[in-house]
Structure formats: structure tokens, C-alpha cells
């Protein structure tokens, strides 16, 4: 059993910490922010590969995560995860790189009358949707109930922090830009509207082919999320009132019944964009990085968590090889 510290308690940090616990390790989460104050708590959180590279690894992680979410959706009241029929409008078929990540049997064509004239096609996919207001507390409770500890403090020196444990896993999202001096990392600004849920039926859908023209509606347990934006290199945390109007307009073009629903609040978050997800062990150290998931944080969370476990506990590793660094003094 190793003593492992995970930095960050967004969806990636919590999922990774849980998987490491299940592998038999003692895990502590270190976080500057409360889990309810992370960008994961703002996320629309539907399973949908988006703004993350490289495609082959993202699609593989997505498939693994889909299977986990499908199991969690068997207890939606407990986990906040449920399966939903997601209507996807296709404008340019060549853009749909993530289609290979779809498990077999979850895709069906939309009826011709459901597809606006300007679109090439449309189809339904039955995918997991995580109500982040319930799913994030579920993850934290699962972690702590298994003996996990949480320390709320700011980490400023990664190497110094690495000396405090056998392994250090960096799941800091946008925080890695400063912590690791990673200039590849950049914010992708997302803005969503949270609407009051009524008895009015609302379909779950997405139309997402331009950064300024992303439209989606995600009915959740107690509310409806409308989105959104994906503006690269925009670090603003304030509401863009024009974006709010545009989101409402685009969504109501697809579903007019959304027009009169009350807006409860507007939320802004920053997806951690990068040329590729950084999931690797830093050579010669006990530090593993797991960040840069773009708009796919939920979608690849469990797949990435499983890969972190494999880095620490390779399947063919000898039981006698308890320290891959051959430095038994680390973290002791």
C-alpha cells in the first residue's frame, strides 16, 4: 500500500482518488477549493467527447467511462447519474470525430421532421448525464466513506509536495498552468443558464459546430441547463449578457417551449484546454499528471483514473517491486 496525494478535487481528482483507494492505497486529496467551487460543479456533465485530444486516447477513455456511468445510472437517486436520449444535430458529418467512441446499440436516427432543413442529419444517442449538483457530493462522500482525507490548502511547489508522499497525482485542471508552468494550457470559457424546471417536456439536445453558436438543453433532476459557449483563451469570469441572450435564442429555435422558463442563474467556468491531455508520469519523479481534459472532463474521468492506477501499479509489475523509483525514502 502506497501513500498517495491527489491535488485537486474536481471530477478528475475525485475519480482518480477513488480508483486509487480501490486499488488498495491510502489517499489524501489536497485542494485549494471546495469541491462545490470547482469548474466540475458548473459543468453540464453529459457524456460527450468535446474539445480534447488526441482523439484515439480520448475515445478509448470515453468508452471506459461510459461503462462506469452506465452502472452508476442504475442508482440515479444515489449517484445523480441517469441515462438520457440525447438528440444530436449534424451539420458537417466530417466533424463528428467522436462517433467511434459510441458503444454499439446506443445510436438511432432521428425522425425527418425533427431535423431542421439546414442540417445534414440527426440522431439520438442514449448516453449518461450526471447532475453535477448531486454527482459531485456523491463522489466526495464515496471517497471519505472509504477513509479518504481532504486537506484544503494551496500547493505552490510541486516538487516539495512530492516529497510528502510515495506518489503525487496532479489533477489541478487550469491550476496546472501556474503550478507546472505549462504554457500549453489555456482556458476555454463556458457559460450556461440554469432554468427552473416545470412540467413542460424538454428534450435533451445539442447543436455544436461553432464556438459562438453552441446550443444545448440538458434537463436534470431539479432544473434545466442551457448552453453554451466554448471561447478559447477567454479567462473572464463575468457573465456575458450577449451570450446569455444568444444561448436563449438558439435553444428556443430548437425548442420554443424554453422561451418562457425562468432563469435561476447564469454560471461561468473555464475548461482546461490543451493541445493534448497530459496523462503521464514525469520522468525520474513520483509525480503523475492528469489534466488538460478540455470539455471532456466528465466524459473521460474514469478512463483517465484507471490509467493513473496502471501507471502506479502496472499489470505485470512484480509484487516485490514496491517502489518504481528505487527510492524507498520518498514519502517516508
How would you sum up the major sheet?
9 strands, mixed
Could you tell me the mean pLDDT? 91
Low-confidence stretches: 318-322, 326-332
Helix content: 25-40%
Query: Tally the helices: what do you get?
Result: 8
Number of strands: 15
Give me the oligomer status. single chain
Give the name of the CATH architecture of the domain at 1-83 and 127-185 and 274-332. Answer: 3-Layer(aba) Sandwich
CATH structural class of the domain at 1-83 and 127-185 and 274-332: Alpha Beta
Q: Radius of gyration in whole Å, from Cα? A: 20 Å
In CATH, the topology of the domain at 1-83 and 127-185 and 274-332 is named Rossmann fold
Question: Mind sketching the topology for me?
Answer:
Layout (H helix, E strand, L loop, with lengths): L2 E5 L3 H12 L3 E6 L23 H18 L3 H4 L1 E10 L16 E3 L11 E10 L1 H14 L3 E4 L5 H5 L4 E4 L5 H4 L6 E11 L7 E5 L5 E6 L3 E5 L3 E2 L8 H14 L8 E11 L4 E4 L5 E5 L9 H12 L20
Parallel strand pairs: 1-2, 1-7, 2-6, 3-9, 7-15
Antiparallel strand pairs: 3-5, 4-5, 8-11, 8-12, 8-13, 9-10, 10-11, 14-15
